[in-house]
Amino acid sequence: MNTKIFIVVAFYSILSGYLFCQTSEDFFEKGKKEYFKGNYAEAIFYYNKAIDLDAKNINFLEARAEARFGNFDYKGTIEDYTKCIESEPEHPWFYLERAVAKNFIGDYVGAIGDFNAAIGIDRGYSECYVGRAVSKYLLKNYEGAIEDVNILITNTRINVLDLAPNRPDGFWAGSFYVRGAAKIAMSQDGCSDFKKLLRNKYQRYDEISLEDRISWVLKIIPVDVFRHCQK
Length: 231
Hints:
There is one protein chain. The relative contact order is 0.07. The chain has helices spanning 3-21, 24-36, 40-53, 58-70, 74-87, 92-104, 108-121, 126-138, 142-155, 160-163, 171-185, 191-199, 211-218. By secondary structure, the chain is mostly helical.
């Protein structure tokens, strides 16, 4: 056998043996390390290996769903969360995350259905009201979007803007953004909501310094809707 061919064959034999000896938990831990580095494709690779060995493990499926979301594979995200829901239908988080993914592929009606399901399990699940408001906004149900944000703000004991800096997902800060956009769409004063964000540690409009907290909604509702608020 040619020496180079032998070396290649030996290398892949050793690699295959190494991978074969890994447990599902080993692959899962490797996937988590890659995920937290922001290496979503690599994380998915290891999660796939873990799921191949234990296809019914909810933790593995949920982890892959999150990595797929980070990798902009929203249909894959929906697929994994659907499997999670089939296994644990009373878990509101799965409905919320699947709904967010549906918003990103334009399935706003389906997203509302999932937000409703999550709220049906936990009426105090505040993130769902903001997410549902976004779906309604995109369906041009502006009154419904405003209503959902008002429910959130009215039913919480914590000032939404005070809490926002401590919440990296930005659902709370995003609530004012969505309500302001909906008001503007209805020819109402939505600038007041937007300016609340600017006054709350978001001072530079050109740099849109609220982006770190509400990047998820900026991808769906462009900041241009507030452009006239700066005049």
